[in-house]
Structures are given as C-alpha cells and as structure tokens.
Amino acid sequence: MSSQEVFVPATVTQTNTYDVGEVRRIALTLPRTHVLDGRTLPIRDRMRPGSAFLARPWGQRTGKYRRRMYTRSNCAIDAPGVLETIINDTHREKADTSPWWQTEAIDYLAATGGTIEVRVDLDAQAQELVIYENSQNVQSNNLILETDPEWSMLRFLALAFSTGITPFLSYLDYMRKKEFGRIIGCRGVELILIVSVRNPRHLLQHEKLQAIAASHPEHFRYIPVLTREWPEDWSGCKGRIIKQEDEEGQEARINLDSLFGLVPNIHECHIRLCGNASARDQLIEGLRQVGLTPSSFRAEVW
Fold it and tell me: What's the rounded Cα separation, in Å, for the pair 184 and 209?
C-alpha cells in the first residue's frame, strides 16, 4: 500500500437526530471514483467492523478544518462506500468538532448535497484508492473484529457506554450478513450487547436491536440499561452496572453484582468494551477483586 494520503469529498447523505444538540447519526457517501494525478481510480471499501475512518470536519472553536477519527457503525459488505457513524457533543471545554456536528450546518450540508473530506490511501499495485482505517490489526486497545474463522466460534460480551455502541452496531451488521458464522459443525457466534445510557433518547436503534434479538435469540442478546431517567413503564435494567463503593481507610470495592446478574458466566466471555477509561479500569479491577478472568478482554476508550 502506498503511503500517499488523499482526501476525497464524501457527500452528507443522511442525518438522524436522537437527542437534539446531543447525539446524531451521520452518513457520508464516497464517490465511486476519484481523479488523482490525471488518472480516474476506483474507490474500494475494505473496512473491517470495529475500525474507524479519518475525516476533516469543521472546528467550531478554532475556525478551521480538523482531522478526526470516527468509528464506523455500519459495515462494508452491507453498504460499501457509505460511512455511517454516531457522534455526540462531548461538552468538553476545548471541544471543537463535536458540537459542530450537532448544528444546523450539518442539516444544510445534507439538504444541499454538501461534502466532508474523507481520507483514502493509494494502492499503487492494484491501481485503486482504499478507504483509510485507523488500524488493521487486532490489538488490546482497539475493537477490530477478529477474522471470520475466529469470531464465528466465540461468545462475546459487548459493553457499550453512551455512543460506545457504534463499533458493535458494525459487528452486528457484519455478523448478520455472514449468517452469524453458522456452518456445518459450528453453531456460530453468540453476541451479548449491554448498552448503558443515561436516558431513553440515547438508546440508539433500540427497536431494531430488539427485533434482531427476537429473531435470532441463539446468536444475539440485547440488554438496554438506563442509568438516570426512565419512563414509568420501563421494565428493563436501571442504574449503573459498574459501581465503585468507597469505604474510608479501605480499598475501594468495585460492585459488579448487577453485571453478574445479567451475565452470570462472564468468565466464559470474550469481553469487548467501548466507553470511558474509568469504566474500563473499574471493570478490570472488579473482575480482579472477585478472581474472575474472562476469555479475553479488549477495550477502546476516550
């Protein structure tokens, strides 16, 4: 693969607002070809589930375009060249691009066929451009899905906090296209998805996930958790699934009782976590305190 870095204009083709000013889904559609140095080259989509693409959105605070990575929420075989992602406003003091994605500027781009630049790389040997991925190798600090022969035989526990559901939506799209890895002699993958959010507005693709779980109970289990507010008729889980309990003069205890109640045999799972660093650290410490070691553990945090 050539090291030549190229940015192409991707059209903002769809927006879906879950919580005004807070969370929305964006779809960017790349052209099929791009002219580079006088040559018209095809653009190929080889992105693995769980990986991220690089875009150049506008920085609302700095007043210039910024380079930012966005985890993809759909998969290449389902929608090649259409990059979907879910973006929230971080509300951090130095936040620059995250609040811009929530503004009417994005709606205007979607309505007028406006574009946002996305990075592709030149594959000189194949004479084509390939959508750039943040990483192509499985590592402890990323959530790229294992190769097909590997993931289809595993039992995953995916823990998603807030918009941390994004890579796992990509997992699910891909697994469904691959019939959950079912082949002769192999029952296929089992994916347990626990989504912990503050309120019902942040339950992304909630009805769709419920429907998939109902249709494929042997392969997919969906557990939504609301931590701060819920409707009176909410029958699902409530409160934090990872709790730190501090006692003066003693080591802080990490209470995982709620999590163990949802997944009693957690030590048999390959845990994948996407969320804040404190959730990751507390989960690791809580498992250590009770002497449990999962089959594997990988996390992507911010």
Answer: 27
Alpha helices in 263-301 (DSSP H): 277-289
CA dist 292 and 18 (Å) reads 37
Rounded Cα distance between 31 and 213, Å, is: 34
CA 204 to chain centre: 11
Q: What are the distances in angstroms from CA 297 to CA 47, 86, 156, 196?
A: 22, 24, 10, 18
Q: Rounded distance, CA 126 to CA 42, Å? A: 10
Whole-number Å distance between alpha carbons of 260 and 266: 7
Q: Which of 109-118, 171-180, 247-256, 293-302 has the lowest mean pLDDT?
A: 247-256
Phi (first) and psi of residue 267, to 5 degrees = -65, -15
Average pLDDT over residues 122-131: 95
181: left (phi over 0), alpha (psi -120 to 50) or beta: left
Q: Which two tokens stand for residue 3?
A: 């090291």
Bridge partners of 193?
Answer: 158, 222
pLDDT of residue 163: 96
Confidence band, pLDDT 50/70/90 cuts, at residue 5: confident
Cβ–Cβ < 8 Å for 123, 2? yes
301 contacts 284 by C-beta, under 8 angstroms:
no
CA 45 distance to own-chain centroid: 18
Among all chains, which residue has been given the structure tokens 């996930």?
A: 209
